[in-house]
Amino acid sequence: MQIGLFIPCLVDQFFPQAGLAVARILKRLGHSVEYPAEQTCCGQPAFNAGVRSEAAALAKRFIQVFDRFEAVVAPSGSCVAMVRNFYPELLDLAPHSSFITRVFEFSEFLVDRLNVTDLGATFNERVTYHDSCHLLRELRVREQPRQLLRAVKGLDFVELNDGPTCCGFGGVFSVKFPEVSTVMGEDKVAAIERTGARYVVASDCGCLMHIGGLLTRRDSKVRPIHLAELLGGAP
Amino acid sequence: MMHTPVLEEQRRATLARALNLALDKRRQSVAEFPDWEAMRQRAHDIRAGALDRLDEYLNQFERAAAANGIRVVRVATAEEACLYVVAIAKRIGVTTAVKSKSMVTEEIHLNRALETEGIRAMETDLGEYIAQLCGQPPFHLTAPIVHLSRDEVGRILADKLGVPFTNDPTQLTLIARDAMRREFLTARLGISGANFCVAETGSLVLVTNEGNGRMCTTLPAKEGPRVHVAITGIEKVVPALKDVAHLLRLLARSGSGMRLTAYTTLINGPRKRAAGEETTGPDEVHVLLLDNGRRAMLRDPHLREALCCIRCGACSNTCPVYHRIGGHAYQSVYNGPIGSVWSAALWDTEQAATLPFVSSLCGACADICPVKIDIHHALLWQRKLAADRGYTPRWQRLVWWAWRVAMSHPALYGFGSIVARRLFSPAILNRLGKPWTETRDLPPLARKSFHEMWKEEAPK
Predict the structure, then answer these.
(1) Nearest chain B Cα distance for residue A167, angstroms
(2) Architecture of domain B35-296
(3) Are A92 and A59 a contacting pair, CB within 8 Å?
């Protein structure tokens, strides 16, 4: 399959390893992976700020960049939700336009589209999983990352019994309302620590950045890691 | 920007205990229905269907209610509604009114309007009564003092009523009942909201847990004319009683986890006066159907859905932001997720326009809503309206414009990314990143961006 790699801004700037892991895994499964270098942002930050005309300009651009691929895969539930759930409203597209239905989040692409759950990875650690809100509630992806994690040899999976509730990132929300966002994040981190896990896995770098920023601030031993990176054999 | 303080830790814990208890009970009572999802859809369809043919159902309700002897009055604004109630109070010569809990009367600030005319409105819902005693607005759509501990309630009653302190819930209830009973027995003006108006029968449906709703609407006073005024929004009309039966199955379960509220009251008109017919009940029943911005919501396809709300409060119970900031932080009668949508729709003020931004857009509200309102999508739409109306400061618009220009030119974005990498050490990044970094670290920028790494990776 001819796959276009969609690397959201946060992955590009802070977590490039997660992007590389996605590319390597997909290549290993025999697909051709291309990273269109002219890609930038899907437009979500402006959309969430209510500035829809700026968001629409980037959304149109996004479709031009990625339209030629059979499938577009991104290591982010949030950015894929932007494309799949909000582009139709933003650009007046049909909700099942052929472009929209070709854009996938990494874990749902592996499990639902490629029918792969076991990537042959080994990870000898206790791990918990944070459901990022947009992946869970916009894309309704809940089981796929868990299936992928459970197939990892040596991995001791524990559920994070906290709802699932938001980590408090919320994009611009975390900047506009830092106190509220922090308290939400601190409760999340406390729940993570209660599991005794050494790693917290998520499928969105926004959550990982927020949770990670609180973990390091309190010198926690828990490390945040993107699902793709864990499956790709890191760290 | 609105300053949104987080509740202090003790208050957060008190609130979380109460809200989580409601959520736990909700989970249990919802589990009794394997087809809960289908029930939500049906509830949505009932409400949305009623809104689709709103005028038809309102007219039908009006005719049926009139046939029962109820006076139905359409009021366009809060002011009009308040004037109407004041006029009744003056006509029948009362200086006290007893009130059942009603968010619409909060919306129109009826108590204040009555007070300026020398009429005391006494809240008789226990929570609302205590909130009124300490001069606070309701903290939550359905639970006005959900944030107070019983110790605090005990102190408020001791302080305001001069009774000995107790924190025993039964004793506290008895104290409040004592204070209210005297008023109930002599009141001649009763004010309530209505949870539903039934078009088919012209009935008002009122759900309460303390029986105070019935006291306020039957008015057992022996002397003088007695009047019940119900004030509700035009959106509360439903076609038939069978629709009410369905919605009631979801309403209390969603809000408090109870199967039904303790009292479900159907009001079908004033006391029938023919000899031997009815000995209790008011001489007149008036229903005010309030617009106050609802028709404008109806015209906007994105806000229309929000009119489906049956005011269960579940979205506040589950909202991680509400849990941390509490109801008063919204500084609006309608608070929490759906309250933010409503507030921004009803009031064209900067404060109200800010509320849709006080959300991480996690979507937990939409998942719990018994009538399936896409609450967080409505919040997103309200953010757009806020920007369109000019509530987004000019400098922010400029930032978004510059951001879009940079993102439209990959070379510019790439150049910025390389420059940032050279200039911003983690220490500088942490300084630049305030206020984010006051409580959280920012990860270091990767040594190479993905974009740069891919150039080396691609040939492999």
Answers:
(1) 9
(2) 3-Layer(aba) Sandwich (3.40)
(3) no
